[in-house]
């Protein structure tokens, strides 16, 4: 813990995913290493939007390992509905949202925090 007291903050990281099989596991593990490891109470919630490229299976595996909470449907629900569904599952004092597909680096979280 550093001077801003991350350990006392409950944080949910919400990520949205659609057909991100090539990058999703690496991205989630980066979020876990670079951000969640600094908090006592933090969760990654992945709102998936009916992927068809193997993303669902990767996310299901990570969910079963307790690494993420996987919020998914078998049919497309759209970006906004996937986000809203993930937000409804959030219990954190603070919520941080990012897209997947290597659009953001997890380590950049600290510039905002």
Structural descriptors:
113 residues; alpha/beta; four-stranded parallel beta sheet; 4 helices
Going by helix content, strand content and strand pairing, the class is alpha/beta
Order of helices and strands: EHEHEHEH
Distance between the termini: 14 Å
Q: Mind describing the biggest β-sheet?
A: 4 strands, parallel
As a percent range, the share of strand residues is 15-25%
Rg, nearest Å: 13 Å
User: How many helices?
Assistant: 4
Write the layout of secondary structure elements.
Layout: E1 10-17, H1 24-34, E2 41-48, H2 55-64, E3 69-71, H3 79-89, E4 94-99, H4 109-112
Parallel strand pairs: 1-2, 1-4, 2-3
A few lines on this structure:
The protein is an alpha/beta fold and 113 residues long. It has helices at 24-34, 55-64, 79-89, 109-112, and strands at 10-17, 41-48, 69-71, 94-99. The mean pLDDT is 91.
Structural features, described:
With 113 residues, this protein is α/β, with parallel strands linked by helices. Helix content is 32%, strand content 22%. It contains four helices and four strands; from the N terminus they run βαβαβαβα. The protein has a four-stranded parallel beta sheet, sandwiched between helices. Helix 1 links the parallel strand 1 and strand 2 (41-48). It is globular. The mean pLDDT is 91.
């Amino acid at each position: 813990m550093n001077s801003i007291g991350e350990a006392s903050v409950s944080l949910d990281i919400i990520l949205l995913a659609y057909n991100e099989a090539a990058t999703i596991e690496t991205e989630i593990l980066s979020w876990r290493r670079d951000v969640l490891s600094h908090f006592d109470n933090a969760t990654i919630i992945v709102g998936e939007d009916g992927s068809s490229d193997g993303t669902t299976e990767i996310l299901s595996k990570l969910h079963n390992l307790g690494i993420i909470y996987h919020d998914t449907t078998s049919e497309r629900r759209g970006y906004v509905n996937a986000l809203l569904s993930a937000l409804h599952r959030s219990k954190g004092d603070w919520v941080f949202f990012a897209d997947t597909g290597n659009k953001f680096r997890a380590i950049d979280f600290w510039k905002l925090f």
